[in-house]
């Protein structure tokens, strides 16, 4: 088992390698790794650094979904729990987007406590990325659509960490001010 610092450091490096060259949706074509860093840091702050595996899973939460990383590889390199957390946050990309979204809402309440925190942190980060000054009509529509759906997912994940719940509510408030 890696020490907590090595676990997180290696997760960050693997995430940087695997998502290399990818850009995130929203604000100014930011590199994808910015999203992963934000999610990992939200989780570290929310738990006051008490759960290294959760923070590592935050760095890696999109690695199975968006890159050729496998659950087995994560289990081998990190731990069974890190692999399980990431797998829980992985959508079946063979399904159409509307169906993936529907399943996220349906399945959110059944997730493990750690996966629920990752999902909330993910939605905080993705909402924030869609908040921009002077949004176009299309950006506003995308923000409204995203916030409505994310709120449904987060409703099924709440109650495990009051700070994270509040951060999400703040992001929704900031979004609604633009709509
Ligand atoms: Zn994500």
Automatic annotation (TrEMBL):
Keywords: Hydrolase. InterPro entries: HD/PDEase_dom, MESH1. It comes from the Bacteria. Residues 28-136 form the HD/PDEase domain. GO terms for molecular function: guanosine-3',5'-bis(diphosphate) 3'-diphosphatase activity. PANTHER family: GUANOSINE-3',5'-BIS(DIPHOSPHATE) 3'-PYROPHOSPHOHYDROLASE MESH1. This is Phosphohydrolase. The lineage of its organism: Bacteria, Pseudomonadati, Pseudomonadota, Alphaproteobacteria, Hyphomicrobiales.
């Amino acid at each position: 088992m890696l020490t907590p610092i090595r676990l997180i450091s290696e997760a960050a490096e693997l995430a940087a390698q695997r998502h290399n060259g990818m850009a995130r949706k929203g604000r100014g074509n930011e590199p994808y790794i910015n999203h992963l860093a934000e999610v990992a840091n939200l989780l570290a702050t929310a738990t006051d650094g008490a759960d290294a595996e959760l923070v590592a899973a935050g760095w890696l939460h999109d690695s199975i979904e968006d890159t050729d990383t496998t659950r087995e590889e994560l289990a081998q390199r990190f731990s069974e729990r890190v692999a399980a957390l990431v797998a829980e946050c992985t959508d079946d990309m063979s399904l159409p987007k509307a169906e993936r979204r529907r399943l996220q809402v349906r399945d959110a309440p059944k997730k493990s406590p750690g996966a629920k925190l990752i999902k909330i942190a993910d939605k905080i980060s993705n909402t924030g990325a869609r908040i921009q000054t002077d949004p176009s009509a299309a950006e506003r529509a995308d923000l409204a659509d995203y916030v409505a759906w994310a709120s449904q997912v987060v409703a099924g994940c709440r109650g495990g960490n009051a700070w994270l719940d509040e951060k999400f509510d703040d992001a929704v408030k900031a979004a609604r001010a633009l709509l």
